[in-house]
Amino acid sequence: MSKQDKLLIKILLCNSDANIPFEQLCQLLRKLGFDQRIGGIHHIFTKEGVEEILNLQPKQGKAKVYQVKQIRSLILKYKLGDQDENSL
C-alpha cells in the first residue's frame, strides 16, 4: 500500500484531520488527477469534471482541518480514488 493510499484512507476515516501533512495532501491531489497552480502561499487545484476549485494554504506544515473536510467531501461526491480509476 502506497503513502497516497494510506493518506486517502486516513482522510476518508476522519481520524486525524488536524494531522495531515500539507505536501502529502498536495501529492495525493495530483495523483487523483488535479492540476496544481501555486500563487504565493496559495495552492490552487482544479480537475476536469470537478466543478469546485480547491484553494489550499499550509499552516505550520499541515493542511488546515476545514480544507481536509472539503477534500473528503469532493472525494466522496465525485468518487475519486476508486479502484477502477487509474490514478491510484
Features of the shown structure:
single chain; about 90 residues; alpha+beta; Metal Transport, Frataxin, Chain A; three-stranded antiparallel β-sheet; two-stranded antiparallel ribbon; 3 helices; 5 strands; globular
Structure, explained:
Helix 1 (3-12) crosses helix 2 (22-31). With 88 residues, this protein is α+β, with helices and mostly antiparallel strands. The protein has a single domain (3-77), classed as Hypothetical protein (Metal Transport, Frataxin, Chain A, 2-Layer Sandwich). The strands form two sheets. A three-stranded antiparallel beta sheet has the order 1-2-3, with helices on one face. The chain has a two-stranded antiparallel sheet with strand order 4-5. Strand 1 (35-39) and strand 2 (42-47) form a beta hairpin. The longest helix is centred in the last third of the chain and has 13 residues, at 65-77. The radius of gyration is 12 Å and the shape is globular. The chain is built from three helices and five strands; from the N terminus they run H-H-E-E-E-E-E-H. It has helices at residues 3-12, 22-31, 65-77, and strands at 35-39, 42-47, 50-56, 58-59, 62-63.
Quick description:
With 88 residues, the protein is α+β, with helices and mostly antiparallel strands. The chain has helices spanning 3-12, 22-31, 65-77, and strands at residues 35-39, 42-47, 50-56, 58-59, 62-63. Helix 1 packs across helix 2.
User: Spans with pLDDT under 50 lasting ≥5 residues?
Assistant: none
Compute the number of helices.
3
* Outline: globular
Beta content: 25-35%
Please report the total strand number as a whole number: 5
The whole-number mean of residue pLDDT values reads 93
Question: What would you say the CATH architecture is?
Answer: 2-Layer Sandwich
Q: Helix coverage percent of residues?
A: 25-40%
Give the CATH topology: Metal Transport, Frataxin, Chain A
Organism: Microcystis aeruginosa Ma_SC_T_19800800_S464
Protein name: Type II toxin-antitoxin system HicA family toxin
